[in-house]
Every structure is written in structure tokens, then in C-alpha cells.
Amino acid sequence: MTVRHRGALAAVAAGVAALTVATVVACGSRPAGNVGATEAADLAGAAPSPPAAGPSVPVTRGELPGGTRTVPPVRLVVPAIGVTATVDAVGINGATGEFEVPPSVDRIGWYRHGPGLEARAGSVVVAGHVDSATQGEGAFFRLRELDRGDTLTATGGDGVRREYRVVAREEYRKTKIPLDRYFARDGKPRLTLITCGGPFDAEARRYRDNIVVTAVPA
């Protein structure tokens, strides 16, 4: 699952390891349409940004509050899709410029250069693999099934469990996803979950789209 720096996501799910055609049949299906897109945009407090040209997108706009101790998510539970996953703090690979999603598909990554769970503004981003040819289904294999009203729990490094409610599920082509919105440090507090989806490009060995789920504090 790749995410470019200043493009730390244009392919947040593009590098989901090598995938087999058999796997595509199982997880390449589309969600039942987008839901909550307007509400997701409103949370960012600004009009949707035009798509970036290529994978380069701003992901470090804004400043984190000085003196604030960032609380990383360390565990995510999503009952509706059977997820209980460990969350690792990840950044950007200096050599490739990509978002370093954990190599084990049963774990997910939190973008440590953005807000933590204590933040009163901005998007807390977690991304995970949908599947792998060698490891099978990933933690976010069923992310596309989430719907408005579903709940999830993120436990922080401070031991506090925080409840969230899903307000939107959207699917974008990787070249059109408004990443500046989803990686923003401003706007209302929200949790953003990202994986890959849509049809699988066998030649490029990657999915065409990204699935984005937005949740707000319950």
C-alpha cells in the first residue's frame, strides 16, 4: 500500500503487495455506492480541493499545537466487519517517498506526522492492506462494507478507548482522491480509514481505487 510524501497517499493502497487474480474476484468488488460524501467534506471545513496532478499532494499543511503530547492509536476494533487490529505508527520511506504501511496485512498504520487521538481538530489517518497474494485477507479486507452509523473503537497509547461513528464511505480513483482533505490538520476531529478497492490492474499489479471511510467521535 503506497502513499507518496507530499503525495503520502496518492496510492495509499497501490502497493498492496503482489495480488492474485483469484484474490481480486473476492475483494475487488465495489461498495454499494458512496454515502455521506457531503458530510465528509463538511468536516474538513472547506470546499473539496481539485484533484492533484499525479501523486503529489500536500500532507503536512498546518502545525500541530505546541506542547501537546500526541496520543497514537495502538488498537482498532470495528465490530461490523470483524476487525481487531494492532496499529503501528508509520511515516514516509525516505528512499521511495511512500507511506510505510506495516508489511503484515493484519496490522494497520497510523500516519504519525498528522494528528493523534487527543487532537481537537484534523484528520487522524490510518491505512491498511486489503489483501496480499502471500498473506491472504488484510485487516481492511471488508472496509468497503462499512456504512453510516457503524461504530468503531480506537484505543490510544494512553490506554483510553475512544468511540467513533461512521459518517461516510467513499471510493475514488487514486488519481482523483482529495488527499489534502483527508490528511488535513484542521477542520473537525475525525478518523479516516483508507485501503484499496475497485478493479484490479493485473499488469500494474495494483487496485485502481481507494476506499475511504470517515468516522467522527461518537
UniProtKB/TrEMBL annotation:
SUPFAM superfamilies: Sortase. CDD domains: Sortase_F. Gene3D superfamilies: Sortase. Residues 1-26 form the signal peptide. It holds the Pfam family Sortase. Keywords: Hydrolase, Signal. This is Class F sortase. The keyword Hydrolase applies.
